[in-house]
């Protein structure tokens, strides 16, 4: 996790808010630059010093096994939920030794990530299978948020696998957030405002959004691109966008500002090929903005007919944007919101509690306004 990792941070905070609303105590342990123990939006958040993983643009991983083990002993949890299987797989053994029910949440496709970095897809898949099998053996439950994400475990015949979609804050993100004044900062009357919202890292393939814009402009579509997010490939992306109407606004910590941008756009692009859920895309739908997604990812499963899936290249993504723009604006915005309303946090939290073998609450347990 980094200070600017939006999707995972949002998911963890919203799940924690839901657990607390259901009457449980929630403690979040995260890696960071310095130690801290604080209450954030009603949740206890413990930060452990952790090194930056080279080449990731700031991602930190927890490597101090002894220190974390002592903390877990001190906290004595009833349930353990782990969202990082890179350095924390041992926590499943800790949970089993201490009689604690454990869950590993797969927030990424290990096969997909390894294929990006490896010139040998067959070797990448074999390594992913070995690591995934170990993860499944280490924990009582493995939770995946989409069928696409679950596929790499199903091919191993994993029996302790559960599919639970994440949710979206339907109150914080909505078509009513659309603001003509905000839109006017980036696009003039008659221009098409295209939005890319996500971390600027290699696996997200943000350059495809720039390539799609170039194709749109070449075809005579008066499109402009706003890129929300930061990451290790920003400099290269800025160079790639030279001469094109691309505005880089960086990481936006204010969730209300992000919601306004999403609602004020005409189309969002989510070009990453290994997205296992794509929370930013779902937030766009909740804002009434249709999404063009990479057909190789899990996002077609999430956006349904409220968006379009295309091959992972600029021409294909641009063609999908044009097809979406051919739909009447009121129809495409209504369809986007209707699709998002299938993914409330109430259902997501209830699903995670079932996976934890905790009784489902009867009251609303959705993401609180303070979660970011």
Automatic annotation (TrEMBL):
<keyword id="KW-0328">Glycosyltransferase</keyword>
<keyword id="KW-0808">Transferase</keyword>
<dbReference type="Pfam" id="PF00534">
    <property type="entry name" value="Glycos_transf_1"/>
</dbReference>
<dbReference type="InterPro" id="IPR028098">
    <property type="entry name" value="Glyco_trans_4-like_N"/>
</dbReference>
<dbReference type="Pfam" id="PF13579">
    <property type="entry name" value="Glyco_trans_4_4"/>
</dbReference>
<feature type="domain" description="Glycosyl transferase family 1">
    <location>
        <begin position="189"/>
        <end position="339"/>
    </location>
</feature>
<protein>
    <submittedName>
        <fullName>Glycosyltransferase</fullName>
        <ecNumber>2.4.-.-</ecNumber>
    </submittedName>
</protein>
<dbReference type="GO" id="GO:0016757">
    <property type="term" value="F:glycosyltransferase activity"/>
</dbReference>
<dbReference type="InterPro" id="IPR050194">
    <property type="entry name" value="Glycosyltransferase_grp1"/>
</dbReference>
<feature type="domain" description="Glycosyltransferase subfamily 4-like N-terminal">
    <location>
        <begin position="6"/>
        <end position="167"/>
    </location>
</feature>
<dbReference type="InterPro" id="IPR001296">
    <property type="entry name" value="Glyco_trans_1"/>
</dbReference>
């Amino acid at each position: 996790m980094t200070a600017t990792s939006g999707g995972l941070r949002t998911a963890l905070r919203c799940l924690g808010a839901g657990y607390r609303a259901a009457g449980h105590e929630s403690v979040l342990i995260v890696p960071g630059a310095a130690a801290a123990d604080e209450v954030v939006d009603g949740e206890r958040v413990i930060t452990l010093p952790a090194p930056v993983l080279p080449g990731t643009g700031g991602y930190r991983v927890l490597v101090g096994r002894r220190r974390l083990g002592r903390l877990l002993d001190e906290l004595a949890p009833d349930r353990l939920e782990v969202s990082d299987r890179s350095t924390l797989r041992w926590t499943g053994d800790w949970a089993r030794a201490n009689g604690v029910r454990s869950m590993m949440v797969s927030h990424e496709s290990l096969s997909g990530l390894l294929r990006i970095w490896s010139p040998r897809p067959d070797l990448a898949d074999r390594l992913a299978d070995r690591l995934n099998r170990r993860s499944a053996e280490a924990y009582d439950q493995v939770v995946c948020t989409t069928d696409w994400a679950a596929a790499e475990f199903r091919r191993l015949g994993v029996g302790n696998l559960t599919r639970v979609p994440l949710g979206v804050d339907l109150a914080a993100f909505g078509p009513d957030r659309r603001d003509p004044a905000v839109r006017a900062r980036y696009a003039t009357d008659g221009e098409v405002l295209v939005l890319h919202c996500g971390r600027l890292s290699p696996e997200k393939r943000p350059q495809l959004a720039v390539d799609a814009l170039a194709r749109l402009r070449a075809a005579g579509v008066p499109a402009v691109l706003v890129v929300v997010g930061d990451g290790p490939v920003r400099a290269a992306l800025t160079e790639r966008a030279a001469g094109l109407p691309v505005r880089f606004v960086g990481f936006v910590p204010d969730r209300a500002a992000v919601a306004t941008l999403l609602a004020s756009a005409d189309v969002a692009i989510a070009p990453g090929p290994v997205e296992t859920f794509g929370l930013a895309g779902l937030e766009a739908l909740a804002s009434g903005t249709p999404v063009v997604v990479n057909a190789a990812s899990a996002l077609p499963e999430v956006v349904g007919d409220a968006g379009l899936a295309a091959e992972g290249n600029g021409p294909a993504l641009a063609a999908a944007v044009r097809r979406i723009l051919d739909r009447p604006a009121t129809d495409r915005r209504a369809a986007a919101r209707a699709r998002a309303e299938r993914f409330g946090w109430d259902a997501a939290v209830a699903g995670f509690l079932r996976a934890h073998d905790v009784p489902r609450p009867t009251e609303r347990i959705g993401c609180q306004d303070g979660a970011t």
